[in-house]
Specification:
Strand content: under 5%
Distance between the termini: 47 Å
Number of helices: 11
Radius of gyration: 23 Å
Order of helices and strands: HHEEHHHHHHHHH
Length: about 290
């Protein structure tokens, strides 16, 4: 009886392993298919001119330099706002807040905010940042909107990273005479930094690729100049793709530019993620004895 039970467990375990491997393989093949589709259709549009010039002739010719600068500005601005606020919130919830109804309500609210459609964040940003705070359509309004949208991801990942830090680290630090804040700042946060960066990577990827929030708050159809302040309006790669594919004057003529712009956006997001992953690995390497 015992041998049969062990055999059934092994069969179940092998089936689950094959199921997980199949799921991973499907995801990998889907990613490969998408990248291959964009590369095969958009690589011909890539050139130095395409990457460094302003769009012209109703955006049927020229380049996407303003879109690249706008996308980087919005994504970096979102993280500059969301990262400190998100980490501070996670520190409060995990290190200072006493368990109770209020903390449960805050965590439930954060979980619900993570599932809110991006278009709702766009309407919120339009009403609050653009109209009430009188920022208008600008980099600042768009970055703050993306930052608010990124907060639930960063808070959730940061709190999990803080929970993963052993309590013995805190006890040893405070046993040596350190205050609670010194323990958090010098022991807990550095140890949790790789996990926090993981959440930041996810938030950065989402912020760089969103269209709905920025089409109301930060991005415009076309602007003839590069941004010169935080209150300047910008072009952005996701919105540029949307415009070329749906509202352009010569949609078929700009088809290579659409795929080329999408390829640049994916490459830019992968580059940002790669930079964050390298930084995370270095932090992990410093923590090893």
């Amino acid at each position: 009886m015992t041998d049969n039970r062990i055999q059934r467990r092994r069969i179940t375990q092998n089936l689950l392993f094959y199921l997980f491997r199949g799921a991973a393989l499907i995801n990998g093949l889907a990613l490969f298919a998408i990248v291959y589709f964009m590369v095969s259709r958009g690589f011909s549009a890539l050139s130095w001119t395409f990457l460094t010039e302003m769009p012209r002739e109703s955006m049927t010719r020229g380049g996407i330099l303003p879109c690249i600068i706008g996308t980087v500005s919005l994504a970096v601005g979102a993280i500059v706002f969301a990262l400190p606020v998100g980490v501070a919130t996670a520190v409060y919830l995990n290190e200072y807040a006493r368990p109770g109804a209020m903390v449960r309500f805050i965590r439930l609210s954060i979980t619900n905010l993570a599932g809110v459609p991006s278009i709702v964040y766009g309407l919120f940003g339009l009403a609050f940042f653009c109209i009430i705070l009188n920022m208008g359509v600008s980099i600042l309004a768009g970055a703050l909107t993306l930052g608010v949208m990124s907060l639930p991801v960063i808070i959730g990942a940061s709190e999990e990273a803080l929970k993963a830090v052993p309590d013995t680290y805190r006890e040893a630090s405070m046993g040596l005479g350190a205050t609670k804040w010194q323990t958090i700042y010098r022991v807990v946060l550095p140890t949790a930094a790789p996990g926090i960066l993981t959440g930041t990577i996810l938030a950065l990827s989402r912020a760089a690729g969103e269209t709905a929030p920025i089409m109301f708050t930060g991005a415009v159809f076309f602007t003839p100049r590069l941004p010169d302040s935080l209150l300047s309006e910008v072009m952005a790669l996701p919105y540029h793709i949307y415009v070329l594919a749906t509202a352009g004057l010569n949609i078929e003529q700009t088809r290579p530019m659409q795929y080329g712009t999408a390829l640049v956006l994916v490459t830019l997001v992968l580059g940002m993620n790669l930079f964050a992953m390298i930084l995370r690995q270095r932090l992990r390497g410093r923590m090893k004895p």
